Amino acid sequence: MISVGIVGGTGYTGVELVRILLRHPHVQIKALTSRTEAGMRVDAMFPSLRGLTDLEFSNVDQDVLNQCDVVFFATPHGVAMKQARDLVEAGVKVIDLAADFRLKNTAEFEKWYGMPHACPDLLAESVYGLPEINREAIKAARIIGNPGCYPTTVQLGLLPLLKAQEQLVQFDTLIVDAKSGVSGAGRKAETSLLFSEASDNFKAYGVKGHRHHPEIVQGLDAMGQQKGWFDQMIFVPHLVPMIRGMFTTMYLKLTEQGKQTDLQTLFETAYANEFFVDVMPAGSLPETRSVRGANQLRIALYRPNDGDTLVILVVQDNLVKGASGQAVQNMNLMFGLPETTGLEVVPLLP
């Protein structure tokens, strides 16, 4: 059994980890921490877990965490990097669902997250946890920076184009129009997240600049054949009045070669062996409810009026493939388990 610790168990990504791992056949949750709710039963805060666990939240105990095989950090940015060294030195693997180990450039991290990085040497060895791209590196990693939700949709939506032998689109024309449910902002008391503020409302945010922008550019540059392709990328996130779900629409101009290429077949071939990425049939319209509660990402392609614009539609559950499910996918790889273990969940409908 894999002995698991979860630091920060009271947020949405924390309880999502618990929900998934309680049904994982090779996992035992040894520690579930909360500095503010120590001593409270987990099912008292989250009644959906009644009858499934007797776990209680506990204070952070480094000795207990050091005895785990892997520790997930479902905490605000800046927490994991302060504890990672002790854990790694004790032989514990670390999977951080925040941003501490995503951006390789420490200056970029400090710019966007407003704090110095506590362990740049560990950042240098960390692996970006997008399995469909970094599978082999993840298997050997000690530290995983779990991707952000928006970056997951963008990178997987563009991967087949970046891996194509010829340039099929003009990458410098990329426009990313992305929407997320309110759970993406976390479980916190904030005026903009109140029901009367978020319900019956639809708004853009981070238009001047969003912290996922440099993460997206870093990932796309690493996959591409030429640096600087994405410097002019326009990324606009929106908050929509739903709890779960993410819908990312991307627009790119096709090259002459791209207009002659069967892009549907290109994408289907690229993801033929990826359980968690579904390239939908031509003419399909993906919906966020089709992935609710599951570690699934669905992609559809359009070329309106057979013109020179490619439209890529991507949906996922921001809390699962966009966060906790992907983290468990990474854990499975790190411990030599089938990648789908504990994650073969049928989406909820309606």
From TrEMBL:
InterPro entries, per database record: AGPR, AGPR_AS, AGPR_dimerisation_dom, AGPR_type-1, NAD(P)-bd_dom_sf, Semialdehyde_DH_NAD-bd
Transmembrane stretches, start-end: none
Listed EC numbers: 1.2.1.38
Active site: 149
GO CC annotations on file: cytoplasm
SMART domains documented for this protein: Semialdhyde_dh
Pathway as given in its UniProt record: Amino-acid biosynthesis; L-arginine biosynthesis; N(2)-acetyl-L-ornithine from L-glutamate: step 3/4
Places the protein is found: Cytoplasm
Keywords: Amino-acid biosynthesis, Arginine biosynthesis, Cytoplasm, NADP, Oxidoreductase
GO biological process, one term: L-arginine biosynthetic process
Keyword NADP set for record: yes
Physiological role: Catalyzes the NADPH-dependent reduction of N-acetyl-5-glutamyl phosphate to yield N-acetyl-L-glutamate 5-semialdehyde.
Protein name (database record): N-acetyl-gamma-glutamyl-phosphate reductase
Classification lineage: Bacteria, Pseudomonadati, Pseudomonadota, Gammaproteobacteria, Moraxellales
